Amino acid sequence: MARQHLVRKRSVYPEAQKLRRFPGLVQMDEDTHYNKVEDVVGSHVEDAVTFWAQNVSRNKDIMKIGCSLSEVCPHANSVFGNLDPKKIYGGLFSEDKCWYRCKVLKTISDDKCLVRYIDYGNTEILNRSDIVEIPPELQFSSIAKKYRLWGLQIPSGQEVTQFDQGRTFLGSLIFEKEIKMRIKATYQDGTVIAQAEYGTVDIGEEVAKKGFAEKCRLTSGIDASEAKKPDPNQLALRSLKNPIPLWGRRSNQSTFSRPKGHFNGRLTLDVKYETNAGNHVTFPKESLAAGDFNLGSNVSLAKIKQDQKLIEENEKLKTEKEVLLENYKALELKVEQTAQELQQEKTATMDLTKHLESTLKTCVGTRLKNLAAKVELLKEIRHINISIRFGNDLSDAMQVLDEGSFTTLASLSELEKIWAEYNVAQEKIQTCPNENEGNILIAERNEVQQKLFVAVDVFILEVDELPLDKRLKTLQDLATSLESVYGKAKEGTNSEEILRKFYDWQCTKREEFASIRSETEASLQHLVAWFQNSQKVFDLSLDEPLTSEDMIGNIDEILEKTESCVCKELELSLIEQGVVDKEIILSTYSQVLQRIHSEEKFIATMLSKYKDSVEFKKQIIDCLNKSPSVDYLLSIKKTLKGLKAQLRWKLVEKSNLEESDDHDGTEIEKIKQEITQLRSSVFQEIYHEREEYEKLNSLTQKWFPELPLLYPEIGLLKYMNSGGLLTMSLERDLLDTEPMKELSSKRPLVCSEVNGQPVLLKGYSVDVDTEGRVIQRAASYHRACGYAKEEESGLLPLIFLFMCKSDPVAYLMVPYYPKANLSAVQASMPLTSEEALKVMKGVARGLHTLHSANIIHGSLHQNNVFALNREQGIVGDFDFTKSESQRASVNMMVGGLSLLSPELKIGKPPSASSDLYAYGCLLLWLSVPNQEFETNEDGIPKVDQFHLDDNVKSLLCSLIYFRSSMTAEQVLNAECFLLPKGKTIPNTEKEIEYTQHNKEDESKIESLDRYKEKARNGEANP
């Protein structure tokens, strides 16, 4: 059977002498079974006091069950539908692929279930295909029983390691051993409370002596341990996460060969401590069942094994057949190629023979000319560096790597160790909710910080002395040089065997090449000597008689030898390397490149750690053993408080003067100027406050997580949670506001001016619950806008978020663009085709920004999409008090066309696809203004009726009909948005409309020109 997992039960089962106090037990003082002795063999251990065991008398039952299951289950139907937890099924154990009876404890998923093998006690997660129905004659009670040691319980709060050791210890006492159980009581779930003995050893006392369990304490009333008894399904699931003894492998030997439990051929306990699993114990696969198997069982098992062996042999033969077939095809191809080459050689030979016959008279001259040409070629080749053929450049590269290698740095290892300790200390501070405990953690952190500061100093000094930049440049140049010669390296594991093989190959090649060169030079010298000697034979002026045979010698042999040596060297130098040679060189090149990249990575790690160390030293040197001060922030808050008090006083003074009968206009104007100056000063300080908050936020994130804990009064945590959007220093009464009822009737909406910029204040009614959600949603939107540059985000930026102190209202400050939304623009002066595409490209960028941050807009419509200067499109914010579904529930219309996608209309949640549908409808509305839209039964507009540019029509079809496959990023890259600057999309209907429009009223064009001029100067927004 497969590897099982012990169930870690932490609940306590106290047993007492007076069992009537415990309602979870079946009292047995007067029962005939009380103190009854059973001989059992342990089969599965759950914890230090709980285990499963099989009665020795059930020996033959186990054997019969195994035989029956092996015959029935392979042909039975797999289960389907809902599984009955009370019913018994057949389960195919994953370890030995044998069938055992099981019950379903829990359905994990549609195709997986947690089961318990009822005749052994262990659990496993099985596929439904491995669970089958079994006949009624096998539907009887389990062989194995669950036992609990009398009078013992697991200590509360026991550590996992001790828990595992206790489980292992109990396993060594009871597993595969015949033990006597004196029954004391029985739980309602069938668990038997008993005293276990092995010979003269009381197993419960041994477990208690080791400290793995403790004596139960008497309680009155309800049994506390029974009340805390965990769900068996949860225990079974936990058991699958913890390795436990293997009990499930079958054996041909019998464990129960004698009636009274004296075991012949008993399988030994194989205890293996696994350090990674807390010293868990495992048992051999051969200990599946305690019982003799008859011949029929052995035959079934043998047949199964024989079939399995045949299958494996068939697979092996099939693989060998495929390999042989491939080899056959390769050989067949090679034979064909050889035949072609042979034919070519025959043709060449015939041509050569004819040529030799025709040139026989000039053979000596031709031979010498050819030899001279080859020698000339050999001279040129010798001047060329052919070291690449023998991997000399790779040898040189390895020498460079060996000589100046940076692969280890003692101070770096120490630094990383201390830095890891420092990070742990920082995390503890960050999660600490208590200031007193936090002070202790800060003190501990400061000690580590001091050590880290010293380690950083040592590391920086050591790195400063290393020529890392020079070494990195050398490695990069080396890699570039090798890649230019060998190309892209293949992936492979680092192996010294490859390098050793390369060195052996290189030495052999060098020796071979040196030998050939030596032979070539010797043969040429021999030929030169022959020519010198032959000169005397043909010199008639010499009187000394010479024998021609002695002087001339065998010139044919000399020429043959010389030609052979020259050709051999030319062949070695010019012929392409073989497959084996290439493989050796490329494998070595891959190893060299891996070493280069490994060292580059190490240097990059050092440089990165060096950069972090320098920053750490710079930030910490002034705050060593202490936290940064927030005095500057407090001074800003104090200044703000004074300025706001002055501003309020001036506002009251102005109000009093205006209400007086004899008010002085000059005095009022003077006070107004003072109020304006005070407002400017207040906002200047608020921006200073935000800058200081941002600095403290950065320090908190990187170096000092204790700041929110030490200074809760500054509200740093709120600032961080809001993404820097929330301010507690701004109040509505400090602003000169003007109601904007025409823009919104649902919530307070006022207009004001901050530093010369018109802004809107949106008021949201909030309570304790909705306030947090508003801040969270606004912060997510603000962060998404901040990840990209403001002008590139395509979103309406959020300036401030603040809470009203007198009323439950949250105010959101955003820029105000008068008459710049699409509804107002199209009503006054519709966008041209080119302008519409520019604007909608910006809107697509805004949706891409939101969707990249997993934010669904949900309420995209013509009133919250803005066309700034008629060319920059931005997406407006949404109602932060509403969820995505609530925002999308409002049916917005544009030109008689619903912006709700079909899936929203049938109640599906909003998605990026529904945002893009609304976007597509807006693009269609801008592309064909003043047109009636035909829709199908789902309310989807028909695009084909309009004469549009092909690229625009293609995009609209994708957005409206096939939007499930579209993303905002794909919309951004659509062809219609990639047109050359200045090129206008033709639109016949709009051109005719505007031509008529121009003829009717040219003054409107002049107004448009004036508007554009004002927009450029920032005087007005459409």
From TrEMBL:
Keywords: Coiled coil. Residues 307-348 form a coiled coil. One of its GO terms (molecular function) is ATP binding. Residues 714-1022 form the Protein kinase domain. GO terms for cellular component: acrosomal vesicle; cytoplasm. Residues 993-1022 are annotated as: Disordered. Signal peptide: none annotated. It comes from the Eukaryota. Residues 82-141 form the Tudor domain. Pfam families: Pkinase, TUDOR. It comes from Rattus norvegicus. InterPro entries: Kinase-like_dom_sf, Prot_kinase_dom, Ser/Thr_kinase-like, SNase_OB-fold_sf, Tudor, Tudor_TDRD8. This is Serine threonine kinase 31. SMART domains: S_TKc, TUDOR.
